[in-house]
Amino acid sequence: ALREAGIETLLADSTFKRDSAAQASAAAELHAFFRDRGGPPDVVHAHAAVPGLVASSAWAGEESAGANPPPPVVMTMHGWGLNKTPEMEAADVAAMNERFACVAALNESGRRLLLEKGVRPDRLRVVPNGISREAPPPTGTGEPASPPAGGGNFLCVGDLGPRKNQVLIAKALNLLAGRGVKARATFVGGESVPRYFDEQMRPAAGEGSLEWIGRRKDAAALMPRFDAVILPSRSEGFPLAILEAFRAEVPFFGSDIPEIAEVVRHGQNGFLF
Fold it and tell me: What φ, ψ does residue 42 adopt, rounded to 5°?
């Protein structure tokens, strides 16, 4: 889509791998791409520490050699995640403090987390996520199933896996089924049927209470068809699904973690559990 819009696009491999050789290869590819276009860009925006390091490495040492100064790297922290080792955390914090011009957190809770991890205060800014006033139109393909009679019909948007914790919804649906309530949940996200869905979510839920309809660009347009949007995440950045549910005027239920609780006031504009 970027290329069709006339935007030059380079697909550089290994920009998220914590492998020094892979990062060096990606940095060399990036450097060559811009060398052929007259020099480095004015600014680089990265969505995590590792690709930011790739970008900063692409022009390392050029200023001392009399060439153009390296471009400043701005990084957005979308969420700290659950799987970093202490060594990974230390490497990311060092990059933010020593290699990047600025680190954007999506909310105050994200900024506080980075401060606790050791990121310098002068490096941090808060730039919240936002959405347009108008929801995207529905595509009309892969429609969710009809809601069950007498029960709730719920939507969860996001890549499936332990961090998003969708298995909790499956367990809740199973509890409701045991009480005679026929509730159903539809899940949007992911390129192909994830093993997490088949191996953890399906066994935890009642028969026929779950459906997965893949990745949808118009996920926000589906929200008004549901009784509520649920996000049971264990870790987040600033989920757009919350803002999209607000825009659609659909009730929102989310796990009581700092990144969600900062936006959702329990009993006022949503519910926390």
Answer: -75, -30
pLDDT tens column, 43-68: 999 999 999 999 999 988 665 555 67
Mean pLDDT, residues 86-99 taken together: 95
- Confirm whether pTM is higher than 0.90: no
DSSP 8-state symbol, 35: H
Q: State whether residue 121 is helix, strand or coil.
A: helix
How many contiguous H segments (helices) and E segments (strands) does the chain have?
10, 10
To which H or E segment does residue 185 belong?
Answer: strand 184-188
Instruction: Compute the residue count for the chain.
Output: 273
Q: Are 58 and 31 in contact (CB under 8 A)?
A: yes
Please spell the DSSP secondary structure of 50-117, one letter per residue: HHHHHHHHHTTTTTTTTSPPPPPEEEEE----S---HHHHHHHHHHHHHT-SEEEESSHHHHHHHHHH
CA–CA distance, 51 with 78 (Å, rounded to integer): 13
| Closest C-alpha among 231, 224, 225 to residue 259 | 231
CA nearest to 52, candidates 90, 9, 104, 16? 16
Closest CA to 193 of 223, 168, 160: 160
